[in-house]
Amino acid sequence: MSATTAIEPFDAIDVIRAKRDGGVVPEAALRWMVDAYTRGYVSDAQMASFAMAIFQRGMQRDEIRVLTDAMIASGERMSFAALGKRTVDKHSTGGVGDKITLPLAPLVAVFGVAVPQLSGRGLGHTGGTLDKLEAIPGWRAALSNDEMFAQLQGEVGAVICAAGSGLAPADKKLYALRDITGTVEAIPLIASSIMSKKIAEGTDALVLDVKFGDGAFMQDIDRARELARTMVALGTDSGVAATALLTDMNTPLGRAIGNANEVRESVEVLAGAGPADVRELTVALAREMLSLAGQPDADVEAALDDGRAMDRWNAMIRAQDGDPTAPLPQPRETHVVTAQRDGFVTRMDALAFGISAWRLGAGRARAEDAVVHAAGIDLAVKPGERVTAGQPLFTLSADDESRFARALEALDGSYAIGDAAPDTTPIVRERITAEEMTR
Q1: Of 49, 74, 193, 266, which residue is the catalytic one?
Q2: 86 among known catalytic residues
Q3: pLDDT at 324 over 90
Q4: Active-site residue, from 31, 86, 121, 178
Q5: 248 is catalytic
Q6: How many CB atoms lie within 10 A of CB 84?
């Protein structure tokens, strides 16, 4: 019997109905569904219906584990065992001004831990790590596996690069479908998408930066907590040590939103300075990563202050053909927005600032769009700081002044000045570990 006339062991309609009616899909049927969709036997329409059933009915922990494992099995699985040292990765669910990967990877590598940071590009209001780094002259994101392993094995110890197409191809296909069928927000699908790639990557341990708030994918902290717990459970069930931090994304992270300006801010942090919130979160995530690598007492702040992290950054950029000393792109046009009254900045809504930066050219609407590396927003003040009338609040940057009107439209009503400073809240709100989930 030919492959084209072979009898399939399951029927997609039966799998869809089982989930639609609130049942548990048997493991073999769920694995088949993912495989059959990846090879084209199950249609987009059928998988869209199944994704909507998951969105409405949810999945049990074991179902999510099987779904994730099936997506991993659709492609290659890497291994860093030959490196002879622990590997730890970090994943952020994305936000506005989130450049933490840039100072974090070289900082953790200072302590002899390999950091394989396979990253992506931005879409919409959230920035992409690779887009930021490509603002550095000469830097390249595409590395062969041999180049990546050599960089991790040697003195650099950290790599930030594009993930290969061979990791979890089922996820790539399903993600594109979710994006156009209103099922992106389904927690089982988000968790399996993120974790299938991270587990396939082969890291020993993973720290998850799960953001909540106005500029985050999950605006509600309860749903962010559910997503974090689901992903930590998936890591545990797959033999990957995992912890998660719930972090606040109601206000942009740091003072730079864009690409080149976020690189500048990251270098400031590596020099022992930079915005307090960026340094605080970098240090918190580094401590989590090093704790999972067996170094809970590592003095990460000292490594930032004494230049060791900066030296590792320079080596990492040079290893990927970048010039860390070269001037970064500068904008052709700028527009300064000033305070209309005296008082305290009471809020700056992250989502609006992210959309504004996107309209300036710092982001992309479609995957094939180019970004303008010099475009973005630089904040002169943050919530809680006092201002006087006429003082700069923030500066918009673009290569074309015609972009300013729509960027300013996005910011209408998104920031405020009041008579009293707002209450301060910690950037790291909660820590979720596998141990906590078993109590």
Answers
A1: 193
A2: no
A3: yes
A4: 178
A5: no
A6: 8
